[in-house]
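go over both lines:
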Amino acid sequence: MEKILIKTEKGIDLPDDFAKLLQVQPQIGLAFEQMRPSCQQGYADWIRQAQDASARTRRIERALTKISKWGERHSLMAQQSESEQPQVGSIPSP
């Protein structure tokens, strides 16, 4: 039986290795939490169904990339990074 580290806010059980990576990459974790439960379940099931460790690792890496791109398209991560960007008026003139 696979150990479950976390459940999403929407109640989806995640594989522990995938959940740990979502926790250490909070922007991707935020994007994942914003996805529909059916999308979250799809990623969790796809990762669990990998036939071996190397396939599982590849699937997790691909899932993180796809979730990141989803977040960018939906402006979830862009809104956070905008607050870290300097404002145009704050750049000193030469």
